[in-house]
Design goal:
By secondary structure, chain A is mostly beta strands. In chain A, 0% of the residues lie in helices and 55% in strands. Classes of the chains: A mainly beta, B mainly beta.
Chain lengths: 111, 113
């Protein structure tokens, strides 16, 4: 059973515009959330994280928002750049410290 | 700094053969994770170690899979005997502490014919 879900598997966005990726989870015990970025033939790279006690974390062009009541988080990339074209994975940490991953969203930034 | 190093990058073998995947974590990291990625199931955690001790192997699919971490700088994931349904990309990741962001290797693409 998929505890972390990423719908809308692909997203195309014009360079300079905002990319918004969404992630929903089912386990209310998750206490820490992460986003990873993955290029083809490479491993996922850690991008940004947020603790369940916060609702927003910002790092440069990347901002993650957490809505605990809705069990929803989102990643905003602004402005989007061609180098942001990749697959983005949402992950959540449970009480046993295991990470549960979503299946990923493909982002294509059009120059 | 060197990242997580996995070998081989690609492995093609016939069913029934033994397969050994190798991983060198980032120096100083004390937690190591093995994942499997497939189209159907996405990224799944197979097993993780803390300070070279297996902590949770509940993700290991069956007895054909085994993992070891003989020291802080090396781990193996072995499949014996291999089956076509084991075909996937296998990732190793390490972190400084179980709850910290994990750093992934570039994976081993395994094809069992």
């Amino acid at each position: 059973d998929q505890q972390v879900k990423q719908n809308s598997p692909s997203l195309s966005v014009q360079e300079g515009r905002i990319s918004i990726l969404n992630c929903d989870y089912t386990n209310s015990m998750f206490d820490y959330f992460l986003w990873y970025k993955k290029y083809p033939a490479e491993g996922p790279t850690f991008l940004i994280s947020i603790s369940s006690i916060k609702d927003k974390n910002e790092d440069g062009r990347f901002t993650v928002f957490l809505n605990k009541s809705a069990k929803h988080l989102s990643l905003h990339i602004v402005p989007s750049q061609p180098g942001d074209s990749a697959v983005y994975f949402c992950a959540a940490r449970g009480g046993n410290n295991r990470l549960a991953f979503g299946k990923g969203n493909q982002v294509v930034v059009i120059p | 700094d060197a990242g997580v190093i996995q070998s081989p990058r690609h492995e093609v073998t016939e069913m029934g053969q033994e397969v050994t995947l190798r991983c060198k974590p980032i120096s100083g990291h004390n937690s190591l994770f093995w994942y499997r990625q497939t189209m159907m199931r996405g990224l799944e955690l197979l097993i993780y170690f803390n300070n070279n001790v297996p902590i949770d192997d509940s993700g290991m699919p069956e007895d054909r899979f085994s993992a070891k971490m003989p020291n802080a700088s090396f781990s193996t994931l072995k499949i014996q005997p291999s089956e076509p349904r084991d075909s996937a990309v296998y990732f190793c990741a390490s972190s400084f502490g179980i709850g910290q962001p994990q750093h992934f290797g570039d994976g081993t693409r395994l094809s069992i014919l």
